[in-house]
Amino acid sequence: xxxxxxxxxxxxxxxxxxxxxxxxxxxxxxxxxxxxxxxxxxxxxxxxxxxxxxxxxxxxxxxxxxxxxxxxxxxxxx
Length: 78
Known about the structure:
The protein has helices at 3-16, 28-31, 35-49, 55-61, 64-74. It is mostly helical and 78 residues long. The chain starts with a helix and ends with a helix.
């Protein structure tokens, strides 16, 4: 698991009380996250990583791995 994925997993566990047994591949549908959690996560991601990813896109990403892919796609080219 890369550093961004680990950080997002830690956010889910520590801030949103998600089971600490999750991995970056755990499907969000299994976690029963509501739209408010996804909205807060969207704000945290924007603040820490730059790109604004709407909460509906986070849900569609399906997992932390999917979010990492969205962050990478939204990151400016080096």
